[in-house]
Design a protein that fits this description.
Layout (H helix, E strand, L loop, with lengths): L2 E5 L3 H12 L3 E6 L10 E4 L2 E4 L5 E2 L5 H8 L5 E3 L7 E5 L2 E4 L4 H6 L5 H8 L17 H9 L1 H16 L8 H4 L1 H10 L2 H15 L8 E4 L4 H11 L3 E3 L1 E8 L4 E7 L2 E7 L1 E4 L3 H8 L4 H8 L3 E12 L11 E3 L10 E3 L1 H4 L8 E9 L11 H16 L7 E12 L5 H14 L3 E3 L9 H19 L2
Parallel strand pairs: 1-2, 1-14, 2-10, 7-16, 14-20
Antiparallel strand pairs: 3-4, 5-9, 6-9, 7-8, 11-12, 12-13, 15-18, 15-19, 16-17, 17-18
Helix pairs in contact: 1-10, 1-16, 5-6, 8-9, 11-12
The structure holds flavin-adenine dinucleotide.
Length: about 450
Amino acid sequence: MKRVVVAGAGISGLSLAFELERLGLRVLVLESERRAGGKIETDRRDGYICERGPASYLDRQNSIMPLARRLGIESRVLPACAAGERRLVVADGRLHDTPLDASTLFRSRLLPLSAKLRMLVDLVLPRGPSARGQEESVTAFASRRLGVLAGERLLQPLVSGLYAGDPDVVSMPAAFPLMAALEREHRSLILGLRADRKEQRAKHAGSDAPRLSSFVTGLDELTTSLASRLGDRLRLGVRIVAAERAASGFRLAVEENGRSSTLDADSLVLAIPAHQASSVVRPLDSDLCEILARIPYVPVALVHLGYFASALPRPVEAYGFFVPASERLKIVGAIFASAVFPGRAPARFSLFSVRTGGARRPEMASLPDEELTALAHADLRGLLGLTAAPAFAHIARHERGLPQYTLGHMDRVAALEAGEQRYPGLYFHGNAYHNAGVPELVSRSGKLACKLVEELSR
Ligand SMILES: Cc1cc2nc3c(=O)[nH]c(=O)nc-3n(C[C@H](O)[C@H](O)[C@H](O)COP(=O)(O)OP(=O)(O)OC[C@H]3O[C@@H](n4cnc5c(N)ncnc54)[C@H](O)[C@@H]3O)c2cc1C
C-alpha cells in the first residue's frame, strides 16, 4: 500500500493524518519536537490554564465538532460564556464596544459623527481592486470603503486579532478573502455585511449559530487526542531535513537524535512553517525554496496575568480588546481568558492573556520577562483601572509566531500551487498559505485528504 508522509504534527498535520487514516491510507507523521500540537499548547499552573498559542476558535466551517465527535471527545468542547460575544476596541486610550450592527454603530461613541457619515459613502462607491482579485493592503481597502478612522477602528483590529499583522502591508484579498468577496458580490461592504448576516441567520435558523469555543481544560485536549489516536504512526523528535525525487515519490533525509537516515514516501505533505518547508525543498527546486522563504513571520509573546478579584474595579465581561496602530499603547490586545471560559483561573481570580509583539512592535516579544510583565500590566491597568499588581504571571514566546499574508501573497501561493503540479505527490499544508484559523486548517485537512485519496488511487 502506498505511504503518505506528513511533516509536522501541528493541528494541520495531525488532523490531515487522522483523516487520511480514516479513509484507509497508510500514513506516517514526523514531528521534529518531542511533543505534538505545534502552536497549540496549554500550560496548567497554580490553578490557571494558560494557552501558549490559540485560546479559542469560531467554527464557521463546522469542522471541529465533527472531528471531536469522531475522536469521542465532543463532551469536552467548551462553548464560551455570553461575554465572548462582546468585543472591545481601544480608541483615544479608552475601551469601546465594537458595534455589531448599524444601529449600535450609530449610537456608539467609538466614532465621531463625521466618520460615521463618511462610512455611508461606501453605499455608493464603485468596486475597487480587492473585488477584482488584485491585491491591496487592509489599510487601503478599509480607508477606501469606510474612511480612515472607521477603517482603523473597525477593520484594523481584525488584522491584529488574526495575524498580529501590520494593516499597511497585509493583503486584504489574501488575508480576508470573504470580506473581499463581499465587495465583489455586493459592491458595497456595508450592504455585503448585511446580506451576509441575513444569510448566516437563515443558514442557522433552528440550529445553533457557531459559537466561540475551546475545550474544558484547554485547546490541547484536541491535539493530544489526535496524537494518541495516531499511536505509532506519529514519530516525535524526527526532523525532515530535505526531500529529493525518487523512482516513485520522494526520498527524505531525516534526523533523529543527531543521527541521519533516509525514508521513502509516495506522497509528501509539508505541514510545517514555510521557512522550514523552504529548507526541505531546497534540493528539489530552488524556485520553490525561494518563494517559501519569502513568506514572513512575526514574533509574538503572550503574557498571562492573574489578578485577585479586588484588583478589578468592576467585572470585565467581554472577549477582550484590540489596539489600533495609532493608539499609544505598547500591547497589541488582550483576551479576558477567565471571563470567556469558566475555570481558566482559580476562584476569585481573573486571568488575562495579553498579546505583545507582532508586526508593529516585534522587538517587544523579546523583552526580558520582568520588563514584559511590567509593561503588559501597565497597559492593562490604564485601560481597566486595576488597583493591584498581578498575583500570577506566565509568558509564552513564539519567535516566528504567525505567518503574514503580505502584498504579493496571492502570487506566491499560486506559484506554490504550480510547484505542486510539477511534483505530483508534493503538497504544502498549514497556516502559511490560506488561513491561520484552527477550524479553517482542519477543514482544509479534510479536503486535502479526499484529494490525496483520489490521486493515490489513480
Ligand atoms: C500566539 C498565537 C495565538 C493564536 N490564536 C489563535 C486563535 O485564538 N484561534 C485560532 O483559530 N488560531 C489562532 N492562532 C493560529 C493557530 O494557532 C495556528 O495557525 C495553527 O495552530 C497552526 O497550525 P499548523 O499545524 O499549521 O502549524 P504549527 O502549529 O506551527 O505546526 C507545525 C509543526 O511542524 C513541526 N516542524 C517544523 N519543521 C519540521 C520539520 N522539518 N520536520 C518535522 N516537523 C517539523 C513543528 O515543530 C510544529 O509542531 C494563534 C497562533 C499563535 C501563535
